[in-house]
Amino acid sequence: MVPIALAPGASFTLDISNVMIFGARGVLKVILGTGLGILSHGLLVGLGISKLLMNNTYILNFLKLFGIIFLLYLGIKLLLSGLRSQNINTDSLKPVSIKEAFLLNIFNVKALLFYLTVVPLFAGSHLINYVYLASLHTLTMGIWTFICGFLFVVAQEKFQLLKIHTFVGVIGGVCLMYLACVSAFNF
Question: Are the beta carbons of 34 and 159 closer than 8 angstroms?
Answer without folding.
Answer: no
